[in-house]
Amino acid sequence: MQEISQQLGTLFVSAVPTILLFIVLVIAYQLLIQGPLGATLKERRARTDGAVEDAQKAIAVAEVRAEEYAAKLRQARAEVYKVREQRVKQWSVERDAALDSARKAAGVKVNEAKAELEGEAEVARKSIRSSAAELANQVVRAVMPAIAGGTR
């Protein structure tokens, strides 16, 4: 057992330089590699997170602008429809006015034509009345000589 402890003691003593070298390497790794690498990774992560945040902000701004544009477009369409509706109403009023004036003009022409026709009919009636007596006399003259004895 003493031999084992002596061998262990020798092993530990010979391992001390290796342990010290290992500790120096770990410290050098911490200072030379892990520290700068960690700082670089933190910076990269911060830049990436910043870029993601910037992208999210840009997306939010774009969505707000798109909503504003959509609202302006809806408003413009509403105005166009309103103007179109006003034009249609105006055209309807103008058409109705034109129809009314055409109806009135047609009514006036119809009344004038009726009056003219009535006048012509009255003239024709008077002419028939005045010529009826003469026609009756002519008929009587034409028929009477034949009835009176047929002498001529």
Comma- or semicolon-separated keywords:
single chain; 152 residues; mainly alpha; 1 helix; 96% helix
Describe the structure.
- It is a single chain.
- This protein has 152 residues and is mostly helical.
- 96% of the residues lie in helices and 0% in strands.
- It has one helix spanning 2-147.
- It is rod-shaped.
SSE diagram, text form:
Elements: H1 2-147
Mean pLDDT: 90
Question: Roughly how many Å is the radius of gyration?
Answer: 62 Å
Strand content: under 5%
What does the overall shape look like?
Answer: rod-shaped
Question: Which regions have little confidence, pLDDT < 50, spanning 5+ residues?
Answer: none
Number of strands: 0
Order of helices and strands: H
What structural category arises from helix and sheet content? mainly alpha
Short summary:
The protein has one helix spanning 2-147.
